[in-house]
Design goal:
16% of the residues lie in helices and 39% in strands. With 203 residues, it is of the alpha+beta class. The strands form 2 sheets. Strands 1, 2, 4, 7 and 8 form a 5-stranded antiparallel sheet that branches. A hairpin with a 2-residue loop joins strand 5 (122-133) and strand 6 (136-148).
């Protein structure tokens, strides 16, 4: 039996269920360089140790790096998946638009973002994604990632556990627009990708 396509009313109902509350009116503090922060209260030994624990080793900062924040990978973390589901975000972003992740309906998953901070502390990193189906917005999610200092190793951020939609109406292709931004509204990376919800991993 052919799967029934959702009506515009059903898509609108899905969007209403997923509607998020408006974000609070928050003003970020003025940006300070890593060096400025380290110079503040440098005679206070306990504060110096606290800043070192919080900010890590300042020598890891690369002042010659072209960009401060580099988003390297998006991974769908799903224990039930038959193979890893990873997008390389340092390659051809236009090519990613043509690829699709297949997710079995009803499985639990998380999104993992891997990124690197090169030269300055970045405040209030956020991962934002807007999901549409057949041109109709069905979900918008904002995840607060946090504030990070430069280091050689990559950072990883995991979203809370989510359940893939299920049922005949929920199956199909979802277009997702993702953005990695911060309190200062720097757009560190924007990309598009597709998620296909199926009855089984390979139906």
């Amino acid at each position: 039996m052919a799967e029934q396509e959702p009506t515009p009313e059903q898509l609108a109902a899905m969007a209403a269920e997923n509607e998020e509350a408006e974000s609070v009116n928050y003003r970020p503090p003025a940006q300070k360089s890593l060096q400025e922060i380290q110079e503040l209260d440098k005679d206070d030994e306990s504060l110096r140790k606290y800043k070192e624990a919080l900010l890590g080793n300042a020598s890891a900062a690369d002042p010659n790096a072209k960009v401060n924040v580099v988003v390297t990978r998006l991974t769908l973390v799903c224990e039930a998946a038959p193979a890893p589901l990873t997008l390389d975000l340092q390659g051809d972003l236009d090519g990613i638009k043509k690829q699709s992740f297949v997710l079995k309906e009803g499985v639990e998953y998380r999104i993992k973002i891997s990124f690197k901070v090169n030269k300055e502390i970045v405040s209030g990193l956020k991962y934002v994604q807007t999901t549409t189906r057949k041109g109709v917005k069905v979900d918008k999610s904002d995840y607060m990632v946090g504030s990070y200092g430069p280091r050689e190793a990559e950072y990883e951020f995991l979203t809370p556990l989510e359940e893939a939609p299920k049922g005949m109406i929920a199956r199909g292709t979802y277009n997702i627009k993702s953005r990695f931004t911060d309190d200062d509204k720097h757009d560190h990376l924007s990309w598009e990708w597709n998620l296909v919800i199926k009855k089984d991993w390979k139906d």
